[in-house]
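As practice, study what follows.
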Amino acid sequence: MKLFYSPGACSMSPHIALREAGLSFDLAKVDLGAKTVEGGGDFNAINPKGYVPALQLDDGQVLTEGPAIVQYIADQKPGSGLAPANGTPERYKLQSWLNFVSTEMHKPMGSMFNPAQTREWREAVQANLTRRLDWLESELSSRDYLMGDSFSVADGYLFTVLGWAPHLKFDLSKWKAVGAYSERIAKRPAVQATLKAEGLA
């Protein structure tokens, strides 16, 4: 498998999942501005949507969209515990978390990277994120991970998105349980290896 990624972008989520699962894979760094792959190549030929992550399978097929990719990765190593079994209520809870992170955290946080964002737009985004983080704080005050006592692919995704806050000058310090959660995940060996591989350690 080959993961097309950009350092610190949402592609960090499947990168973490691949290392947590102990799968063999290659990395291909993408210049998102130029739409080129390090070493040569047109990224649009890999993913015509033009953004990461993209996971190229050994048979040449390409998977896109982070929540789908991380579930695929987890299903390659069921014993890793990164996702509950398909068809179980717990799997749908995982999908609920992945959708929450994608739509309620990733999208608004990502919008703050847009240089065209007005002050009013940013304030509205931050007000919405504050409501989501207040709820997330209550959820994480009683457990270590989103699904309970064990790490899942949803945690790698949320960790990635929360990591953007300092670059966006969005202060998360009022949410103590969320901060402790991020620190806990940051200490995981697979996460440390991911950060190092992406030049972010």
